[in-house]
Amino acid sequence: MRFFSSFWAALVDGIVDMNANRSRSVLQFVGIVLGVGSVVATLGLIDGGRQQTTKFFETTGGILKMRIDNKDGAEVEKTATQLNSKGLTYDDALILKRDGKNLSLVEPTIERQEMVRRPGYEKRLTLSGATPAYVPMYSFGVAEGRFITDQDLAESSKVVVLGSTRRDQIFGSENPIGKTIQMAGGSFTVVGVMEKKEFFWNEADGNSLEWMNEMLFVPITTLMNRLSGERENQKVAYINVQVASIDQIGAGNDEVRTLLKRAHGGVEDFDIYNRKDRMQQMEQQGKVYDITFMVCGTISLLVGGIVIMNILLASFNERVREVGTRKALGASPIHIAAQFLVESVVVTMAGGAIGIFTGIGFCKGMSALIQQPMSVTPSMMVTGFSCAVVVGIVFGFYPAVRAARLSPVAALRYE
Amino acid sequence: MTDLHDVSRHPLIEIAGVTKSYDQGEMQVNALRGVDLSIGRGELVAIIGPSGSGKSTLMHILGCLDQPTSGTFRLDGEDVASMSSFQLARVRNQKIGFVFQTFNLLPKASLQRNVELPMLYAGISASERKERALAALDRVHLKERSSARPSELSGGQRQRVAIARALVMNPRLILADEPTGNLDTKTGNEILGIFDEMHAAGHTIAIVTHDPRIAERCDRVIRIEDGAILSDALRQAA
Predict the structure, then answer these.
(1) pLDDT (tens digit, 9 = 90+) per residue, A391-406?
(2) What is the b/e burial string over B2-32, where b = at least 16 CB atoms within 10 angstroms of the residue's CB?
């Protein structure tokens, strides 16, 4: 008990002593503040980037979405069955919808270039033939009016829903609902306008989802039946499906492949893009940057640690006689080591605490500069702080042991 | 442990056949070549000798700052020669009070904190430390200046603080190394006066010096030369 109270007293003594040598401590402090600051900032920016990726996927329908595309076989000479397969069709979508047990949404899309006319407006634009599932599939809501309904599909109605940019281009400040547009020989009634979709990876790049605002939606059946006039030709550009839960991504993938292969007479003339894989791929690429950033942060912290050790060693000589005196008065090697160690640990703890705020500041500055979002979570603060304390112990250890092992006679004689 | 009654019948210091040698490069320096010495409780002893005689080495061994190369050393009945550095630290803390030629106070700490330092290593509570530090400073007439820094004091006052620090643990032995070496004659005499008072109060004191005038004031003078005791004489009562 006596030893512990004397040990504690030696710790307190070390702190008092530190206060007496303020300029020495301030230098060490600054080294650690910057080190911890850069670690926290690094972690914050890395995490900010990762959240941005996740958010992008969420804005466009989440990771439960899978996209099925047509694939042209690489073979120059195709077999009869390959030639017989028409690729992805509206019927495929209906099969997936009927038989896909893991699938919660199926959304086939046809795209066709058509002349779009209105008094004072004439332009060749891409029409998208879609189904009501488009809205939940892309988390793409309607701002005014309504989207395409099942009734529209059944009746192949001549209705159109505008992307927000197209609405502005075609109608300006007019209310477009109920107005008509001439497209490919037919007269289409505007029944709705989509919400504006926005996502900025960084300010300089512009809205990476602007293409969604430039869409013109018509019922997929209308596009197939009325415009093309070829009932046979039901080819769709792509089909998006969504599985019910993350656990079903793998099963959904296999199910889609099995169902479509059967429908296509055994020919696999399609690709399935799984967003989970895509996201993992992006994270893999991101890891290279993460590692680079972390190395930079760690190096700064090490430099801070070396500053501490350097200052402890530089001030060592002027403290040798003091160590001798303390030993003569009864300080054990442990007392001396504790006194030295507490100095570096207290400095790094204080530096670590302030460094967290510096790191948040760095992060805010950096994110304003490079237009990247940032986020500093409590766990990052804990990480930064613990790093600082570890650095304090590691780099304070050598000077502390050296002081503790000094022979009292040599220390007292030191000039 | 030996029984207390027995311990008190032993002399405070019993040294037999102590040698100390250092390797200095290729040369071996024999600082002490077989010293036998016994100092009783309550004695005021001067250890004198020219520089290089080995008196500093003897003082380091007496103060448990260093270990003899061979020989035995019993302090207060304890065999000190075979102790670890941790045990020696405890012995220095509990049984020995040091007074140095250069005072060796912590320059940035107050007088009170300087005097408290040995008690800190003994694990004594803060309130008791304060009380005892102030009492010790009172004994050297510096209680009112307890919050001053050493740099605000004269040399003699600093040495008085160092004496207060040496006394505060109630040590068995007070070991003074040239305590007046950095002081003028008048101040030096004041310091020696304090040692006389302490001696009268029953403390055992050993003063290491090369100054024959200090030796004259002591009961017993041990003269060292070439690492051995040349003479060990009791001063005749005047």
Answers:
(1) 888 888 888 999 999 9
(2) eeeeeeeebbbbbbeebbbbeeeeeeeebbb
